[in-house]
């Protein structure tokens, strides 16, 4: 990952930021099922569907996947498997942070944060305002905020957090070279803090009710 950072800085200086290849730098671990002149296509086992990179934009992964939904607003089944299939799993020696954790259960190297104490997170905290001494601490940051003001109030008794503030805090507490995954409703959020680079956007159709979610992927510079 350090190599990526150095190479990226060099490429940016030379106006070549678009040429960073996520596969070449080991950020995407999945082997492509098909390579053509234009595409590298990744056929997922954990989800139905494909993701792809184009030869002109090897720094970015897109695609459309289908996953079976859960009834309680939790991550769809196999959502984390899908991330691990594409990006590899976080080594057990490193730490992951799950913000707006809901039913996600903390483990030895997985720290959870939720504003509601009844979710039993590792820390009852507002994800928009994480502890100052968590700077550059985590190898991965995951966040699944409520999808609307209405859902926030009705399902969790909270107000809708600012996604901008959640991501800004995520960028601060993630290590250089670490990855950030933000699951939102159907939107393609263009803004991101300067501390991170966007490396992917995946549309997820949640079956059987066909709601749509958007997985935003970033790397900390
Ligand atoms: C969509 S649910 C997350 C579901 C989770 N991914 C799962 O699989 O169970 C959203 C969660 O965000 C929490 N939440 C809402 N506002 C928050 C905030 N400002 N900071 C931290 N957690 C918040 C809610 O309590 C709720 O548990």
Structure description:
- The protein has an eleven-stranded mixed beta sheet with strand order 1-2-3-4-10-11-9-8-5-6-7.
- It has one domain: Vaccinia Virus protein VP39 (Rossmann fold), CATH 3.40.50.150.
- With 221 residues, it is α/β, with parallel strands linked by helices.
- The protein has helices spanning 2-13, 79-87, 149-156, 163-173, and strands spanning 34-35, 39-43, 48-54, 57-68, 96-99, 110-114, 123-124, 138-143, 174-184, 196-207, 211-220.
- The longest helix is centred in the N-terminal third of the chain and has 12 residues, at 2-13.
- It binds S-adenosylmethionine (SAM).
- Residues 73-75, 99-100, 102-104, 113-116, 119, 126-128, 144-146, 152, 156, 158, 161 line the site of S-adenosylmethionine.
Topology:
Blueprint: H1 2-13, E1 34-35, E2 39-43, E3 48-54, E4 57-68, H2 79-87, E5 96-99, E6 110-114, E7 123-124, E8 138-143, H3 149-156, H4 163-173, E9 174-184, E10 196-207, E11 211-220
Parallel strand pairs: 4-10, 5-6, 5-8, 6-7, 8-9
Antiparallel strand pairs: 1-2, 2-3, 3-4, 9-11, 10-11
